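In the lab's daily routine, each protein ends up as an entry in a very long ledger. A line of letters takes care of the sequence, but it says nothing directly about the fold. The three-dimensional part falls to structure tokens, numbers that each stand for a local backbone shape. The outcome of that step, for a single protein, is printed below.
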Amino acid sequence: MSTAVLARPTLAQRVAAPLAAMLEFLRLLSRRPVGLIGFIGITFFLFLAFVAPLFVPLQNDPSLVDIYLTPSLAHPLGTDFQGKDVLNQIVYGGRPILIVAILAAFVSTIIAITFGSIAAIVGGRLDTAILAITDVTLTLPKLILLIAVAAILRPTSFVFLAVLLGLLQWSSLLRQVRAQVLSLKERDYVEAARSLDLGLFHIVFREILPTMRSYIAIHFMLAMTEAMYAQIFIIFLGLVPVSGSNWGIMLYFAQGQGALFFRDSIWYILSPIIAISLVQLSLVWFASALEDIFNPRLRGA
């Protein structure tokens, strides 16, 4: 009994292990300036979307006197066609966009790694059926299909929109996962797990997928970028409800209210475009550094 108690890790040890791993990750990331800038950018926009609104009050009162004001101390990014502060809309407009992008990437990643791994390990007719469905999905014009589905269903929930986007993004990663699992399933540690009859779930999620974390993480971020562009595109077309506030809705109203024809509206138009572009750039830069960090042969550390 006493030996078991002594062998049990303390709270400090349980905290120290992930903290050490995080510090090592940041050390490796610091050697890749582009990836570090991307990580800082992602952290900034997550803070802007989920933390800043707790301290910044929502300004929702139109002021017809202050239409399309240029940047000033009172309005650092100017005002829109209703006299509302653009910076305030940028702060409150990031959360819906990022939530949909994260949920869509999560759905597509889960589908791809689950069915790609099962197809490679089980094989046979199940593998053939999954590959056939994947090939059909790969050939579909996703953007046109998304527009058609959104026009027919008119999704009123951004969660539904995220699931819809996720269902259109999994096919390319599934093939990559399947190819990797086919090469890994003959390894000794996988054979040992099979001989111990640990089950398919354990073999896939505890033995094989941890070695593929770079593929999964990079796909997740690229899937986020694709989901962001897709949702903003259909918002811009008016195929989803435009109530509330997000960066796509800002562009929708900028186009609908004729902001392009006002000289001083440039800040209102460019602000959401720049925010979207910087999030995308941060994701791509951070993803570019992950392969080097996760692969010991490439990181040179």
